[in-house]
Amino acid sequence: MNEQVIHTLFALVRKVICDTELSEEVKTQLTPEMLPQLYAISKAHDMAHIVAQALGDLGLLGDDEISAKLQKQQMLAVYRYQKINYELQQICRTLEEAKIPFIPLKGSVIRQYYPAPWMRTSCDIDVLVHEEVLEKTADILTQKLAYKNEGKSSHDISLFSQSGIHVELHYDTVEDGRASNANRVLSNLWKYTIPQNDGGVHRLLIDEMFYFYHIAHMAKHFEDGGCGIRPFLDLWILEHRVEHDKTARDALLEKGGLLTFANACRSLSAVWFDATECNKMTEQMQAYILTGGVYGNLDNRVAVHQNKKGGKIRYALSRIFLPYDTIKFHYPILQKHKWLTPVMEVRRWFKLLFKGKVKSSLHELNVNKSMSEEQIENTADLLQKLGL
User: Fold this and answer.
1) Which of 68, 11, 4, 79 lies closest to 275 in space, CA to CA?
2) φ/ψ of residue 166, rounded to 5
3) Contact 143, 131 (CB under 8 A)
4) Element (H or E) spanning 204, and its range?
5) Where are the alpha helices (DSSP H) in 128-191?
6) What is the pTM of this model?
7) Among 42, 126, 212, 242, which residue's beta carbon has the most beta carbons within 10 A?
8) CB count in 10 Å sphere of residue 346
């Protein structure tokens, strides 16, 4: 990975989001030869639109192919925001009329603190409702807004608007056993809300809970192979653009077992967006994050879960025979009839076979088998430092 390209990427993001000037060193590094690499890594982390904004402000976008690609990503970011914002307004209006309490999550909330809302991209809309009204809420959205219901998963119902926007209708935020002890805090999430308006059903998370949920979500994806650059930029925004009580934030993080992880993320965020010095831990985190892209990669995920399961064999067995605490979310009937677990395991195998997922499953097992001891040890060291 080219360190000069990485250095330039973050300098450009800081220019747009953090309002900092480019150093003369960075300006001299910004050559036409660098642009293809800069485009590749920024697109992999869904940051190309911000890079395009910075280069455009500097007058460095021309008529070449890479400049056209960067400008296209910027236009797509604006277009995506307009579509998502329209659907979010439709959802809010519909649920307010139905008097169903709901909480918008993630990007739909935090983008208001960015220099322009389109700069905070997202691929979906996340809304939380109480589990007891989950099915009713999904039915209302399918009837009133013509959304397509794609089915229930371990923590949400997946819906799609007619314009293709993905809506995750959550009834849970982080599953049991994920992200340290996050559920110790998130199980009481609704108690940390305030009304958005007089109707009272549109709820907003208070600052310390929004911050905690953000960290917990980062930890969950970190354990699955990586979370990309964007959550660290969100973290910088929450630290610098939102009034807050650090003591209140840290109290929740301590309760949920995520304070160590949060402090490490704060350190890496400061390295990237305040240009502070790296240390051994932030170097390890940076390598893990940057190689993983927006959603992480398989090598990272296998390395993490090998450490958590206790070795290659145990990890392989856990993927062939899903533990009850995992498979019960794939097949909710198991939460009432645990004795059906072997039947559902077989059903899952047939699903993998007939939906063409055998090849990817075998690839995962091969990655598990061939992973070097060095990578396993490095990942174990990182997890220990992060408190995960």
Assistant:
1) 11
2) -85, 125
3) no
4) strand 203-205
5) 134-145, 183-186
6) 0.86
7) 212
8) 9
- CA dist., res. 282 & res. 179, Å (int): 19
Phi, psi of 180 (to 5 degrees): 60, -125
Structure tokens at 76: 């797509």
pLDDT tens, residue by residue, 73-120: 999 999 999 999 999 999 999 999 999 999 999 999 999 999 999 999
Predicted pLDDT at 305: 65
Give which of 160, 85, 91 is closest to 127, Cα–Cα.
Answer: 91
Burial class for 353, CB neighbours closer than 10 Å (0-12, 13-18, 19+): exposed
Q: Are 31 and 1 in contact (CB under 8 A)?
A: no
Phi-psi region of 40 (alpha: psi -120 to 50; beta: other; left: phi over 0): alpha
| Domain residue limits, the chain | 175-191+205-296, 300-376
Question: Is residue 16 exposed (0-12), middle (13-18) or buried (19+ Cβ within 10 Å)?
Answer: buried
DSSP 345: H
Helical residues (DSSP H) of the chain, grouped into ranges: 3-13, 24-29, 35-44, 48-57, 65-97, 107-110, 134-145, 183-186, 207-223, 230-240, 246-255, 259-273, 280-290, 298-309, 312-320, 324-330, 341-354, 358-370, 373-386
Q: Among candidates 349, 375, 380, which has minimal Cα distance to 362?
A: 349
**What is the distance between the alpha carbons of residues 266 and 335, in angstroms, rounded to a whole number?**
38
Contact 315, 368 (CB under 8 A): yes
* CA-to-CA dists, residue 374 to 179, 286, 364, 370, angstroms: 24, 17, 18, 12
Pairing of strands 156-160, 148-152: antiparallel
CB 119 within 8 A of CB 48: no
Give the per-residue pLDDT at 229: 93
Residues in CB range of 288: below 8 A, 6 or more apart? 222, 226, 300, 379, 382
Cβ–Cβ under 8 Å, residues 162 and 108: no
Please list, in sequence order, all residues whose beta carbon lies within 8 angstroms of the beta carbon of residue 132, skipping any fewer than 6 positions away.
none
Exposure class string for 304-342: b at 16+ Cβ within 10 A, else e? bbbbebeebeebbebbeebeeeebbbebeebeeeeeebe
